[in-house]
User: Fold these one by one.
Assistant:
Number 1:
Amino acid sequence: MPDHRERITKTVEMSGEPVEIYMTKMMTPCTSEEFKAMSVEERETAKVQPPLNQRTYSPEEGIVCMQDIPVKMRDGVTIYADIYKPEAEGRYPLIISWSFYGKRPFDGQSEWQIMGVPPQTVSNMSKFESPDPGYWCRRGYAVANVDPRGIGHSEGDFVQFGSQDGKDGYDFIEWAAKQSWCSGRCALSGNSCVAMTQWRIASQQPPHLTCMAPWESTTDMYRESLCEGGIPAHSFVRLVMKEACGPNYMDSTPDNLEKYPFIDCAYWKDKDPVWENVTIPVYQTACWNHFHLRGSINAFRKCRSRRKWLRVHRDFEWPDAYSNENLKDLELFFARYLKLERNGWELTPKVRIEVQDTGEFLTMKNRPEENFPLKRTKYEKLYLDASDRSMKKEPVEKTAMAVYESETGEVWFDYRFEEDTELTGYMKLRLHVAAESYNDMDLFIAVQKLSTKGDLLPVTLFGEPHPGAWGKMRVSRRKLDEKLSTDYCPVQAHIYDEKLKPGQIVPVDIEIVPTSRFFHKGQQIRVSIAGRYIRGDWFEPLMWNSDNQGNHLIYTGGEYDSFLQIPVIPPRFQDGDFIIR
């Protein structure tokens, strides 16, 4: 169904300079009666929103909600929040959810289900991907569900994931800290979009922001969301954007990717967190099998806080966030920094990882580590050999070529482990490639596990097989950013296109997202290369605007040192057959 919403251009301040951007009219708030009276076409651009109703009421016994509280920003724009707190008089630390999902659970994206979380686990006070007042208020905290600028009945236009969101978050925190019901200590919390905004707010360093818990957070909007590997991805972002509801306009990031196709401009810089400004305590989580993975781990590595913790798991973000075990863990973190309890939180390992095996099975759960990547990592190269579609531990002498049809084909290379092997950390793939009859190539990489008999052994979430650790590259964007790249993690620069001549062979270094998998003796690792994303039954609606024609050629051996670099983790201790990992 076509999108009938109006698109305009506006000039806004970004990174300290005026930038002309595309903005799209959001879903228009309306009452139920107004919605019923609309035509089918009008309903496509409207969403039911309750009218402003400033009141104080009790949604559940022992909890008070101060609804539709107006808060004025520094430029005079008014935004609205629902504040939940314990019924007893007192001054409570505040946990803030900041996102465009709608500040009540049935506003905004009401039709989204919390997959993997049984009904009644989360109260009707909880907004999507956010801390549940039904849990936190009963433990002595207040919770703020905020409609940012432009969302719901909040005034202004919504410029997503930029410095304006950060400045407004600063103003809200400083307003809240002065209220009679607030202790003056505030935190940010939530998953996904709610986590992503936290880094932009923390970058502004509001004095009363005491700590933050961004559980799963994309942090580089260009490299991780809109243009992963240099391949544009519009559909998922448009799907999410379409549900934003407010009276005015929102920043249309897919359209602005077309307007600003390279990363070195004020538009994209404005969406980058200021890592050196984030010095408060941070509890970051990441999922090995989720598109927030890269951003979450980079956030942990880049922020300047000396009090930061990372937990990386195999489960999907929603069941992970609302599980009893993890809620109690987060409660220890908040109690330490919001209530100043001496509860031993500092003894929590700086890094905890789950080492995945097969399906839903783990080799180890929450294994303590000191850092990420792990210091004891030994990087090894597995050299691709197109003559027999294998990988070998030694360089391949004889040159060979593999070919696949770019729109429908696939080629893979396998290696069998001769002993139990753990791979945890960053992989990279060096390829020598050519487009037989075209001027560009989009490469989609999957790194997978095979059984001793050669059958795929995927990790599963919600019973569905994950495609595997991934990497992507548009070959015309092969230039790397020398400052951001390391020997174990190449990072593309995205500052110009460098088209191919048909048949021209070029080397490319492809970033593979971090992973943790255990391979038992005799099991195999596979590198799959294709011109499209091969998802199988994987449920996430991710699509890329690929640009391929004709055959792709992969060269190996001799002068073409194509290889997969893997992060091998040796045992902590070994004595004969006795091993401690």
Number 2:
Amino acid sequence: MSALSVACSVAGLLTTGLELAKILAPYISALKETPRIATHVLSEIRATNVILSGLQKLFTKLSGISPNSAALIELEELIVVLTDGVLIYSELESTVGPLVASDAPDSRPAIIARLQWTRKESLLEAILVRLQGFKGSITLVLAILQTDSQIQAEEHHDRLSRNINTLLENDEGLWRRVGGLGLASEENKTSTTQDNENNKSAQAENTIGDATVAFEVIPSCPAPGGPPRSFELDLEASRVYRMAKRDTMDFSFRSSLAGSIAWSIFSGLSVSDISAVAAIALPIKPKDLSNAHRYDFGNSPWNPETTDHHLGGFSGTVTEEDLDIERSKTIIGSPSPLLRPCASSESMFFYAQGSSIMRARHNTLDMDAQVEHHNNDIILIEVNNSSRRESGKYVFTYDIGGVAVVWNLATGEELSRFISPQLTCAAWMRNGHLVLGNAKGCLIFFDPITTQHFPVTTFSGIAISAIAQAEECEYIAIGCQTGAVFIVTPPPYFAILYHAVRRPQYSFPIATLRWHRTPSLQQKTMLAVQYSNGDLRVWSMGKVYSPDNPVKTVRVLDKKGSGEDLNSHWMAWSKNGTIVQYSDSETLAWDVRTKYVTQYSIPLPEGIQGMAVYGPEARLFTIGPNDSIQQFNLRYPPTSVASVQHQLPSPPS
């Protein structure tokens, strides 16, 4: 099922308005005593058509709009206004249509016609009030885009914002449909949050389809006074302690309903940030409208199956039969079973040492700090190096006890903390949120600032083993334990743009997924896919997806065979189109910039336990035996920069 784009919604609204005016005008003129409400309906429709016509002309060529004016209109605001308009016109046509289509007005008494309009007058009056509000909003949108005065544009935008906030406050159904989008008033959002909290138990479980996502935000440990003691962490993680503090803490829980989330991929984006409104979809499906035939739902690659939170398919529907085949596969090997969690920021290297995070400086590898936020062994570390918001500032860590912490890279201070069992992978998104995958085949989108979370069922029962988001576009790559790879769009509008599913009854898990950081002017981007048997492939796809330009496998770099042993397989992009691969205890650098791929070996010490790459500076970090750490310069020929063995902390007395 395809989505309704912004461009198609405007065209459909204009078509509906013209059709309504076409049937109403002769009908009203044929009546001897025209019902007042019918005249008002026709007048409002004609006035609205004029505004929609002007808006359609502007949307056909966004490049002709002043960037300053376009920057004032947020995509969230445009989505709310047009969604409201489409729903109003659907209700209006379903109400007015039967009044004029039953039979010709000259073949029945005029009093009967007036009686029918009188019966519907109260309903039509309510629709007219909403239609006038919609007309006022799109008039302001048009005025903002057409005016040459920045002062006037800002005044129009202030009025538009007030109109939208009032609309969302008075129409809970619309607020839930658009997911809040961060536009409702703070009072409305607060009351809704409190209602949700009062209706939830201490252990929050979101049920979506057949999958259950356990997720609970818990209070962060205070930073002043040094790192928290182990008994404090135990208390914070205990159910009894959390229930006792629930009434006094700022607990933020959102249900799995679409309307309960107050953020989107459009947060912070405006009309000036896009090149075509056809790529932006409204949260509307054909079954939501009585006049769906007026709209073209096939002019967009987006697939907003947001009601059930299940991913649909664009490059071919993923059927239940496909999922059953995936679930029945024999899994050979496991992704990176021997590598210790580690990561690198622009200036720091982080690695896990039991329940502690060791932080060392680049180039010298001098120990900078030991961060204590966990009471169990840490199994995941992800540094935010790619998002446009707070890039290089926060670190995500996760332990075997199911406790996750987001903390400040520089100070070690906690930002947020939550519990979610069976997480298998995590990645930072471009908007500063986290996307998490678990062993049940579910994604969780989490905002560490507000602690709001958004669980999404992907493929129930098929474990997710790797996640990555492209830095230049919104694509998210999902790798599964069955070897399947999916490229999807993020919330609130989900679509499978591409999926690669291997049909054999055996499969190798996806060990690592990494997007290449390509120049902004380049039209394509690349995704490297590392399987747990050593098979390494590079895919190419356009930054703006099109079915006419599908995803292609452009490089098959290595094929190790069965991979039935438990050797680690890992890879990462470095600088200038180079991929660093660790496979079967061998480290190679692949230059994939041209079809003539070259490779060279990176001489590393034996017994490597963990690896991380900071791509922009071509720096490789490794963990060896006895917590020895090394840094290498990956520019050819690769050279050793530093090697340090940190003293293990003595056990507590």
Number 3:
Amino acid sequence: MIRKATRAAAALAAAALLLTACSGGGQEAAGGDGSGGTPQTGGTVHMLQNADFSYLDPARGWDGGVNAFYRLIYRGLTMQAAGDAEDPNAVVPDMAEGLGTPSPDGLTWTYTLKEGLKFDNGDPITSTELEFGISRAWDPEIGIGSPWLKNTVEAPADYKGPYQTGDHPGIETPDAQTIVFHLKAPFPEFDNVVSQVNAVPFPVGTGAGDEFIKDVIASGPYTLDSYTPGSSIKLVRNEHWDAATDEVRKAYPDAWEFEIGLEGATIDERLLAGQGTDVNAIAGKIQPATLARIQSPELQERAISAEAYCVTYMGMDTTQAPFDKVEVRQAMNYAVDRTSLQTASGGNQLALPATTIIPNAVNGHKDFDLYPSEGDSGDPAKAQELLESVGLGDGFSFTLDIRSNPIMQAQAESIQQALAKINVDVQLNVIDTSTFYETIGTPSQMHDAAITGWCPDWASSSSTMVPPLVDGRVITEKGNTNIAQINDPGINARIDEIRAMTDLDAANVEWGEFDEEVMALAPLVPLLQEPSVFLPGENIAGYIPNTSMTDLTIIGLSDPSAG
């Protein structure tokens, strides 16, 4: 039987989403792990992957795969706790001595940095370097990643980051160890904001233009040894990283090697065979066609399943016809055949129908289905009725952006077939995976609709699950998360109302209600929740996969000399 990734009991009740790791700064694990071994210090872990990372620069990149990579090379004030910690969903201090101290009015947050922090060149990391690195999020060209800093920290509308404007007016550095953030409004979850991947330090004056496209200045346990875009990345130890200052990252391997550009089927064949260095390899989820081949006791023992913490959805540009009409968007929700989508995605072990934005496993989820159909196979008659009500009974055509990924292409073909029943012609625009998120996050480049996915940015609440997709005030020219471009005053006000709640449990209930309110306007079509099965190499230890982002910092090898 395929094993499920184990989680602490506290985590099962919480909204799990991002990472998995373990606490403590030593170099040897105290016990077992999700892959049945005990990680030891040394050796090289190999990552086999289809696509390159979006960006080495954390101000630009912001998706599950690259976020996990960033955790190996960058540090911030806080971070997601280790996955094998008592509560892997907690936010814990990283470079800061403790979590932030808010002012009584909630408008300022103060952090004190640990002593002895250094970059990979040996230069010290102080509050000055942290303020500089964080302020890069406001650069109009570079700051296309996580929006949370820009959404919460006070800054003039014309502030354009350190290269164009200078020091950040909303961030104070009264001394080398202290940094103070001034917020636009109280935000009780601000510790989560500074755990985002773009809230990291860099030496003052570095990183302008494309400087970090092929290079990094590391603050974490590893630094870049070599990078051939689209082909390979090798990380080696950062000799200036001090484990005594890092209570989360274990950094067992001496090196990491990422092999890029492999077909999914090739990756699976290599993991199944487990020859040579592939005993020390990990990868993303296995392909649907591989699932039936994991039958032997040895493979069953290695395989690990992880539940879905993300939603796959089709976002529609509500500013352009025909998706500017709510009836058309509702018709799309009725018309899709989620059973067909499930089959296209590998069956019920790898895909479950989604009718809500917040997945079942995430805290705040509310069960509802505003656009029901028998067997989740779609209701073309109801969809046709809605189209006829707005004069589109003869159908229309639109272009759908998708990733160059076999599963996503199969999902898109399922949508094509379902919508053809209501005379809607879907043209597919296939985009390379490494540039997909940047493309659809640029409204001028995205077409009529896109299939993509969303995971919550932190685990303590559902506040990051729905709002980024529908808040009209976060629509940007680049790095846009509201790909539906819906800007509804009622939605915006409701977001503010719930965010102001200090009782986060009560707020989670409201986020579930908000999910249903948003879906009444149908800016997107929830398609699937996608649990996954992973097959690590037999010598991998400390591996606890996550469908949103697996923590690489606790992974090691049972026998560093093997492979």
Number 4:
Amino acid sequence: MLVKNSRRFRYSVLCVALSSLFLSGCDNSSSHTELTDDTLPVKTAPFGWTAQYKDVDGTAAATTGGEGARAESIYVVSSRQELKDALSNVRSPNYLAGDATAELTAKLEPKIIYWVGTIRGDDLGNGTYADATYYKTKPNKTTFDFDLYVKAFDKDYLAQLQATIDAGGAEATTAQTELTLLKKQNGQRSQYANNQKAQIQFQVPPNTTILDVGQDARLEEGYLSINTLSHTFNKTDNSNIIIRNITFQAPRDFAPAWDAGDGASGNWNARYDAVSINASKNVWIDHCTFTDGEHPDSKEQVLFGKHIQRHDGLLDIEDGADYLTISYNVFEEHDKTTIIGSGDSDEGEYRITFEGNLWSNLTQRAPRVRFGQVHLVNNYHRGATDADYPILYSIGMGFASSILSEGNVFNFQGAGAEESTIIGAYKGSKFKDNGSWFNGAQAKNLNQIAIEKCTALQEEEKAAAESANKAPGNWALETCTNDIDWEPPYTYAVGKSIAAVEKYVLENAGAGKLSISLPD
């Protein structure tokens, strides 16, 4: 559905364009505002690190999303195909199907997408939905079968098949066929996963605003991929993307991988996030809800001693993504929530602000940070050690990270829930907290806990290196410190009390809290 008159689109609710020039601006001065009372001001336009972006030539560039979209590039969508078409901007006068240059031109133009109701990534457009069987053949045929994939890890069974083959006879040929098929399962799993990805992925181009209309916009069995530095989008540095007021139910991976070497007892690893941000800059994710929803991993079958994990991250940030603000979102009922940096070699600036978010009933990664200058301010964390998603830690100090935590509230229940539960040590050495709270009291020991956990991990690595007659990693020689070498280059306020921060978050975080109407 196309809005016919773009002049009438200048509605008051979507203040991301004009108000961003006034409320967030491109003010590079740092200012920690002292509140006159307990009330924290709610931001209605891009702020934090996303408002500090500069183009490659050094020119400040506001986060405006699809501001300035022509009438043809304003969409209302309620199905998978309509969303795909809107993201491709097929109604642009410059769009010509099959002409790569014309298609790219249209995708890079400003576009505004209103989202109505539930959209499913597995929707086949004919009243049916893709399932685990469908991905075995579409779009490319595979011989992958999850039961066979699992059986391929049974060494005794493989040895039995080999013995049958070696013995010869009538059963040898059948055994050889099965053994060959089992050995191909891991490779076929990759093709199967690519089939699922082709169906459920929605690639978000630069200069795009996506908004829920009402309170029921949802994405199920699909995910948004934000990667504008790819060739698909002409390696565009300035993504300029705004996503607000959407509920994302993380998609299930029907071909998760078992890694026996992941951790002390192995782990299942899934592929798809609810939203992934890769190598993109100048992105604002605001007032959204992220969850496993109807498909918690705790209900999955237990194999190799672990529940099969169908979900990866809720919102993962990788490949040097930069100048991001993640605000007023709900992250709930999930394990591996938000990772920043995919590995210890995934170096990047990762300047990211997390403000006003609710992190509820999560096992870990709220967030886990590698590299980066990450500002966590006025967020509310709650969970328990004995829940379906038992809390392991909240903030992960990852490799080369530099984390500033301010005015965050942590409320953890259950056996072993202590202030130290807040911090996970993963080769990070720089963490500073100002004025956060744990279980109703000031978190007075948080800075010392961070240093102690960092130091303990360093000592473990040094001892392991000495035992192996090797040099320890350079990170193990760093000074564990509460001194960080940066400060937020923007104006912000820190909550003065637990009640103020909880009220601020609970009243504002999550989808359905904004009042956005369709344009006339």
